[in-house]
């Protein structure tokens, strides 16, 4: 799932390459991605891009007074330049993800919006203001923002009778964090993913705040300038706990373990995070 560091890098590349260019044609191949049926993406043809930004894990392509094209990448969505297949896609045994929509501009390659899932998770809205999109309007404070404060963090976590990992991924509480970076944050903070936020002590909250800001900020800095075709691979390579099942923890050397979380699998270090307790894995 794309998360804020990669979406930020994607937005910055699109902003640099598309601002000032005119959208000349839109080809929506999968009609289900259009969430504003009265204003489909094709309605922006002929308009000039005035900037590209990010809201949490969503993209915002602004077209001046004509409106905004807001793109939710969902669980498996991404973008690529036409004619360019990511090295990781080309090397894989599976075919590259299908294109669900193509945005053609007056200069340079077209932008393809893709989705690699078994079900369509990509979504597009055309609106006058990005905050008309419910997924944008509900977003909590963003740990990547210079304005993000300890007060914002405490408001999201302190006293919550909910698992810490779930709170970190709750977009209404903290914008932009998903399964992978919540694993990385919790590992860096040495906090159990399944403990309730209300049970965290002062030292744990301090470590978790520092890790939340530090992990997200460092990842954004590391991804900045990486071509969008390589961003997913760079994310995977940088993980210290997430996706490292069976590998030694880089802190203590214990084996990174899996556990079942919601509808997916996540990773943690039993020694660093749970006092040696092995968390349940579905089907075990």
UniProtKB/TrEMBL annotation:
Pfam families: Fapy_DNA_glyco, H2TH, zf-FPG_IleRS. Its cofactor is Zn(2+). SUPFAM superfamilies: Glucocorticoid receptor-like (DNA-binding domain) (SSF57716), N-terminal domain of MutM-like DNA repair proteins (SSF81624), S13-like H2TH domain (SSF46946). GO terms for biological process: base-excision repair. Residues 240-274 form the FPG-type domain. Keywords: DNA damage, DNA repair, DNA-binding, Glycosidase, Hydrolase, Lyase, Metal-binding, Multifunctional enzyme, Zinc, Zinc-finger. GO terms for molecular function: 8-oxo-7,8-dihydroguanine DNA N-glycosylase activity; damaged DNA binding; DNA-(apurinic or apyrimidinic site) endonuclease activity; lyase activity; zinc ion binding. It catalyses: Hydrolysis of DNA containing ring-opened 7-methylguanine residues, releasing 2,6-diamino-4-hydroxy-5-(N-methyl)formamidopyrimidine. Residues 2-120 form the Formamidopyrimidine-DNA glycosylase catalytic domain. InterPro entries: FPG_cat, FPG_N, H2TH_FPG, Ribosomal_uS13-like_H2TH, Znf_DNA_glyclase/AP_lyase, Znf_FPG/IleRS. Belongs to the FPG family. This is Formamidopyrimidine-DNA glycosylase. It comes from Agromyces aureus.
